[in-house]
Write the structure tokens for this entry.
Amino acid sequence: MLKVNGLEITARSTKEQLVKGISFEVGKGESLGLIGESGSGKSLTSKAIMKLLNKRVFNMSGSIRWKEQEILGRNAKLPKGYRGRQIAMITQNPMTAFAPMIRLGRQIEMGFDVKEKKAKQEFYERLDIALKNVNLPDMKKITNSYPDELSGGMLQRVMIALTILQSPELIIADECTTAVDAASEYMILCELERLRKEGMSMIVVTHDFGVAARLCDKVAVMKSGSIIEQGKTLDVFKSPAQDYTKQLAQASLLFREGIC
Amino acid sequence: MLKAENITKRYGFQTAVDDISITISDDSVTVIVGESGSGKSTLARMLSYIERPDTGRILLDGTSIGRRTAKATRRNVQLVMQDAASSLDPHQTAEQVLDEPLKLLLKMGRPQRRERISELTDMVHFPRDRLKNKVSELSGGQQKRLCIARALAAEPQHIIFDESFSGLDVTLRKQILSMLKELRKKLHISFLIITHDLDTAMYMADRIYVMRFGKVIETLERPTSFLDLKEDYSKELVKAAEYKRQALYI
């Protein structure tokens, strides 16, 4: 479905190459994990796929094809509903994802364009269920508050619920469980795993092998802008070819005694 | 020894910390685990005397901390916050950050201070050639190391880490945690680590307190396995931690 081929991203001001010709593919119903430490170019890649990078700041070359249509070229046109209905992204920083001066309820309504009373009622019922699935039982409290009244973890969960509600064809989850506590992380991962079983494609950007093992069929390990290893998740974890991957795998599990 | 006796803290109608007694023994690592909103951070702020408890008292080596003894407490109990970037002054250089506590708290002379700064940077593996850089020019990991070095500069007995490791990526977290283990052996300081991550807790702890809704629901001495946790809620935390790990062991 999504094919990235030789993607290169360069910062225009410093001429520094940030992503160095990476290629990967995500088929229908497949789930790919992009693993690497901070600063390895994972987030840049996912933003490039969403076409959220500023052309004046970054120079991009290579090709990104979505359903056999080129997205990246000079004259490329985005298909209708490319961002949102087809590909949805859960960003890393939930604090900057919402408008600060509008109550969350109204913001959410705007995005989904519900006008009639009946449709609205139906929509809020669906929203209630979606929020409950990510460990937010009190919908009234959420919809009546401004973004700065909720904690970062709560906003993150609201964003995940919204993404799920949109039911896109591909979800890009960019470090979506870093800011939330362990119990909520568990619920979010369960929810994403359920979606994956229903056949949604995913790109999971993470630095945690545990998350990748739950959600991804295959992983691509990134280091300073290039993919150094690619393969099935458990194969890469159990017999890593690169030293860096080995380090990453060891760091994911601190406590080894006990159950395992 | 830092000890809290029956402390309670209310904000309006909400009780953040409800009648808690905990002990942090010298030369050990104590970990408090709990979900967000369980009162962990409030407890940390009270132990470092940034906030005062409504009832109950906090004892440092047997003396109760009050207004008169607060200054000594602040030196002896240091707090490292979650967000390194916002707890450092972006206009200061790394050197200035470390210089300040040495000058103000320990009243050291300039040559001594310079020596101590290079000692501190070596302790936390902070690259020496970046000492002249502004804080805003440092990477996230370097900022974190700098925060820890600043806490160490005051030569405290106790350091409290309030969710200091939760935003870090896993490789960096491992590096910093193993550095702390090393430091504790060398300097005989006690650490109080506040986290929601059971993995970190088990890796570091001599004693674990599990908190929920402002109360301590379980205490665990010298944990060796997740199975040691007995309460229902703790088991749920274990389930959450195991969830990710299991996938790697199928």
Summary: Chain A touches chain B at residues 37-39, 151, 153, 178-186, 189-190, 207-211, 213-214, 234, 237, 247-248, 250-255, 257-260 (CB under 8 Å). The domain at 2-252 of chain A is CATH 3.40.50.300 (Rossmann fold). The first helix of chain A runs from residue 42 to 50.
